[in-house]
Amino acid sequence: MKNSREIMEILEAYDLTGSYRAAAELAGVDHHTVKRYVQLREAGERPAERQHRARPIDEFMDKIEELVAASKGRIRADIVHQRITAMGFTGGDRTTRRAVAEVKSRMRSGHHRVYRPWITEPALWLQWDWGEGPRIGGRRTSLWCAWLAWSRFRVVIPVFDKTLPTIVACLDATLRRIGGVPTYALTDNEKTVTTQHIANIAVRNPEIVEVGRHYGMTIRTCLPADPETKGGSEATVRIAKADLVPTNANLLPQYKTMGQLEAACREFCDSVNDRVHRASRRKPAEALFEEQQRLHPLPKEPFTVAFGTTRRVNWESTISVEGVRYSVPHHLVDTRVWARFHGDELIVTAVREDSPAEVARHDRSAPGHPSIKAEHYPPRENKEADRTPRATTAEEAAFLALGPGAASWLIEAASAGARRLKPKMAEAVALAKLHSIAEVDRALGAAAIAGRFAENDLISILTYQAGLESIEPSRATEQHSLQPGTAAWSSFGITNDKDEH
């Protein structure tokens, strides 16, 4: 069978020569072939159309079509081959695969769904969906991905769970970020939104219905196994995961804290909302300004019923839940927060900038074992490390003016509990008038190192240092002992001969 190009060359050769044999020589084919294609053209038929030839599998085509239709196009070709072989087919499995592929192709072309394009309207639809987020400290996170269908404005918020209170907090934060409330919110059929299906009718969670009433918005769910009804939110999830979740493709570093992930999500939203959208040919941030004119106003107070019970943060930056103290960030002191248990965790929610957000999370504890986290408190001053003496009187100022040795002496003497410190300080100031200030300061430093704070110790050290350039305190070692020697006892008990006489 010649292809269409070869057939056209044969026909052109015949039109040029007007002879079957001459055209055959030009085209390089048999003259009978030229005659057949010329006669097909003169009969009004398409020469390039392949003529069907009888095949051994033709008598089994009805059975193949029946099997493909019964399985809705899911049956495998090898299963079909087994069935028709048992019925007497003697051909190979390759012939069966081709026949099954033809039947499936015809079936798809006859049952292909045709979709009407969704023409969105401003301030009508908000969609949200969930995406798997990066791990933080080995813990899973989720990405709340929402978008306005008309303006294509996107909001991505990272969370640790997908419970109903978290959904309410994310929904409120999204509405306040877009500056209003649309008419509908479309999402998937999760248990937090749809409790069950009866006769293919979604039964709403009564709590999510109350949330919708609070904001003046109807919450709907997409059809099961019909991703076309929420394609925009799925695209938002796909783009957010590609830009935020570390993979080998984007080589992003791992996030150490939730704060780093939140900052990355804010940067991502600013980037995509300030970029021209491929479908609308305008920036979502600019389109949002126009859509905001039609959005419903937001209620002043967020929906807080789902966040748990209220607690007042005391001046120790803690709350009490079931007799256990749990810490919260210190900037929430003397404010109201909401606390709830989710499994073995206590989740604390606060309203920040008119939008609820999770501020603390603790493992459940028992009475007598408070759960306090250091990151909830400002850094403490290390007062023990700051031991620099500060003069409060003229006498103290005169003593400390001698130098760092005087300050060291005062610190060590005070730690050792030495007596009569002020008279000894006055004595050091007086000695500085007889000796140089540097010598007295050096003697005080040596006294501080050796721990000599008794009476006249300073004078003894000054006298000892008078002829020395550098002073090192005497210390006991393996080769040298500080114990006095016995040389003075050598003459003990020996009498003088003159005294005897």
Keywords, separated by commas or semicolons:
single chain; 501 residues; alpha+beta; Nucleotidyltransferase, domain 5; 4 domains; five-stranded mixed beta sheet; four-stranded antiparallel beta sheet; 17 helices; 13 strands; 39% helix
Low-confidence stretches: none
Main β-sheet description: 5 strands, mixed
Q: Give the class from helix and strand content and strand pairing.
A: alpha+beta
Just give the CATH class of the largest domain: Alpha Beta
CATH architecture of the largest domain: 2-Layer Sandwich
Q: Provide the residue-averaged pLDDT.
A: 83
Strand order of the largest sheet: 3-2-1-4-7
CATH superfamily of the largest domain: Ribonuclease H-like superfamily/Ribonuclease H
Give the tally of structural domains.
Answer: 4
Number of helices: 17
Q: Percent range for helical residues? A: 25-40%
Task: Map the helices and strands.
Blueprint: H1 4-17, H2 20-27, H3 31-42, H4 61-70, H5 77-86, H6 93-111, E1 125-132, E2 142-148, E3 154-159, H7 164-178, E4 184-187, E5 194-198, E6 201-204, H8 206-215, E7 218-221, H9 231-244, H10 258-273, H11 284-291, E8 309-312, E9 318-321, E10 324-327, E11 336-342, E12 345-352, E13 355-363, H12 394-400, H13 404-416, H14 421-434, H15 437-450, H16 457-465, H17 497-500
